[in-house]
Write a structure and sequence with these properties.
This protein has 14 helices and seven strands. With 500 residues, the chain is α+β, with helices and mostly antiparallel strands. It folds into three domains: 182 residues, Four Helix Bundle (Hemerythrin (Met), subunit A); 91 residues, Four Helix Bundle (Hemerythrin (Met), subunit A) (Up-down Bundle); 154 residues, 2-Layer Sandwich (Heat Shock Protein 90). A five-stranded mixed sheet has the order 2-4-5-7-6. Helix 2 runs antiparallel to helix 3, helix 4 packs antiparallel against helix 6 and helix 9 packs across helix 10. The longest helix has 97 residues. The chain starts with a helix and ends with a helix.
């Protein structure tokens, strides 16, 4: 609107300036030089007419020696008069000019005939020469010159009158413009005072608004962090069964091994007690030979029993099984710890293949009845927030599992280099696909096609936001009845915002 206002003011100023310029031009439109030139040309024509009259008188007084009239001077004076008449631009003057030229042409012819008649004085009729003299002397050149002079004067007077009217109009118009300029100056001064008053409070208002925006931004970032964590915990809650299975299996190894070890401990303890008794007899100075032989036989019997039962080998294997189970439990706990930690702003060089493997193990409960194909290409480590990228991968795997059927689902995870500065992770499934009318909405917050209580509609939205904050892209292609492919594109080097 302000631009339209400036355009309107500019157009108004242009119109007012054009009106003033027109009035000024009209008030000074009288061409005095043309009028003076016309008067000079008329004076020259009067001299030409007088010269021709003098030739007539000389021809009567001195027959035979009268020169013929030369039209060159007339043409020069007439041409100058015609130019000035054109500059003045009065149509009536043009008509008088035509009549004047005809009168001068007629008089020139009469003067020439009179000169010829006088030159042949002995052979021509004197009365004819006298008649030519009278016709030439009383030709209408003089009256025509007077009429043309009056026409020039009238035109000049009219031009002066019109110019005077335009001068009066220019005076009033200038007064109007001065009033307009005064009003604009007053209005501008009022605006200047208003602007000064506004500027005095602008800084305080800007500071207050900036503080409000900063507080709102801080709350928004905190809400975003809590939302991401909430969605992450929601995903983990759906995988409790798989995690329980992952822990229960190695825990069974540990329990079984410890129970077997517990059963072997009394025999080993009995052997140790009897061996101590044998050592005590051997250490005695006057030990009973029969008792020593009996104790030795008893210890040998116990050792042979342990050897026949391969107790030591079993005990070693039981301990290995228990340690293996404990290692499996430790790995599951480590995966959970790495996946769910809150260090969302920590950026590090990360092996995406490690993140994919970790996400597949975490999502075992949903993926166990699907075929997961891993087609890993050679890709560099990526500077990113590992926990956030793990969350994106796990969400894509979880969606792929939910889109496929038990026993029929095939999920393909493919990695590769998109270009020199980006890597790509594809998660494709052979599920039901996404309808074309739904596809543009899948990244919208709270949009879900799942039933009530089965989805929050935040998973893909948060994933999209995480990838966008990393300077990457999350692309999707889907065909109903064929399947869906999500492509996660990440820069090898972090964006400036993420690095900061």
């Amino acid at each position: 609107m302000r631009i339209l206002g400036f355009i309107g003011y500019g157009f108004m100023a242009l119109v007012l300036s054009a009106g003033w310029a027109f009035l000024y031009w009209q008030s000074s439109a009288v061409d005095l030089a043309s009028v003076e030139g016309a008067r000079g040309a008329l004076t020259e024509l009067r001299a030409v007419d007088a010269g021709w009259n003098q030739q007539l008188v000389d021809g009567r007084l001195h027959p035979g020696g009268t020169p013929r009239p030369t039209p060159a001077r007339f043409r020069s004076a007439y041409g100058a008069l015609e130019v000035q008449a054109l500059r003045i631009g009065d149509a009536r003057i043009g008509g008088e000019l035509v009549q004047l030229k005809r009168a001068f042409d007629d008089k020139a012819a009469l003067v020439a005939r009179h000169a010829s008649a006088r030159a042949e004085a002995g052979r021509a009729d004197p009365s004819e020469a006298d008649a030519l003299f009278d016709q030439a002397w009383f030709a209408s050149t003089g009256p025509r010159l007077d009429t043309l002079a009056r026409a020039f004067d009238r035109s000049f007077d009219n031009a002066l009158t019109q110019a005077e009217l335009y001068r009066v109009a220019l005076l009033y118009y200038s007064g109007f413009l001065l009033a307009v300029l005064g009003f604009l100056a007053w209005n501008l001064d009022q605006r200047r005072h208003q602007l000064r008053a506004a500027n005095e409070t602008l800084e305080a208002r800007v500071a207050a608004r900036t503080r409000e925006l900063s507080e709102a931004l801080a709350r928004l970032k905190e809400s975003e962090a809590m939302l991401i964590q909430s969605e992450k915990m929601s995903s983990l809650g759906q995988m409790v069964a798989g995690i329980a299975h992952e822990v229960n299996t190695p825990l069974a190894y540990v329990k079984s091994s410890l129970e077997a070890v517990k059963r072997s401990v009394p025999g080993a303890a009995h052997l140790a007690t009897e061996t101590e008794t044998l050592l005590a007899l051997l250490s005695a100075e006057n030990a009973d030979e029969a008792a020593l032989a009996a104790q030795f036989s008893k210890v040998r019997t116990l050792v042979e029993e342990l050897r026949s039962k391969t107790a030591l080998a079993e005990l070693d294997q039981l301990l290995k099984d228990g340690l293996f189970g404990i290692g499996q439990i430790s790995e599951v706990i480590s995966n959970l710890k790495n996946f769910s930690r809150l260090d969302r702003n920590k950026v590090a060089d990360y092996d995406l293949h490690e993140g994919i493997e970790s996400s597949i193990r975490i999502g075992y409960a949903q993926l166990q009845n699907r075929v997961v194909r891993k087609e890993f290409g050679k890709i560099p480590h990526v500077s990113c927030s590992p926990s956030q990228i793990n969350q994106v991968i796990l969400n894509l795997l979880s969606n792929a599992a939910q889109a496929t059927k038990d026993g029929e689902g095939i999920i393909t995870v493919r990695t590769g280099v998109r270009d020199t500065a980006h890597v790509a992770i594809e998660v494709a499934d052979n599920g039901s696909g996404i309808p074309a009318e739904v596809l543009p909405k899948i990244f919208d917050p709270f949009f879900t096609t799942k039933g009530v209580g089965k989805g929050t509609g935040l998973g893909l939205s948060i994933c999209y936001k995480i990838v966008e904050n990393h300077g990457g892209k999350l692309e999707v292609q889907s065909k109903p009845g064929v399947g869906t492919r999500f492509t996660l594109v990440l820069p090898v080097k972090p964006s400036a915002a993420l690095a900061a």
